[in-house]
Design a protein that fits this description.
Elements (H helix, E strand, L loop, with lengths): L1 H26 L7 E3 L11 H9 L4 E3 L2 E3 L5 E3 L5
Parallel strand pairs: 1-2
Antiparallel strand pairs: 3-4
Length: about 80
């Protein structure tokens, strides 16, 4: 009786595993991630609100910007800190 129960549990686990992997495979939709580095780098001034706005208008998926913290705790949009 216990052996039949263990076999049933193994079959249920196997079916659940296969069905979950199959559902992941069936519904997987690869996407292309388009990033705007420092805004629309090369098209508009880097690290400016104007550049960020134009980048968002281009339907990018990620807006990457560089933040720096000064010694007196001011947050700056820049890679070069003085």
């Amino acid at each position: 009786m216990l052996r039949l129960f263990h076999q049933l549990i193994r079959k249920i686990i196997f079916i659940l595993l296969v069905s979950s992997l199959l559902s992941c495979w069936l519904f997987y939709q690869p996407t292309l991630e388009v990033q705007g580095h420092r805004g629309a780098r090369g098209l508009y001034p880097e690290n400016t609100l104007f550049g960020f706005q134009k980048t968002i208008e281009m339907d990018v998926t990620t807006l990457e910007l560089d933040l720096g913290l000064t010694k007196d705790l001011y947050l700056l949009l820049s890679t070069i800190l003085i």
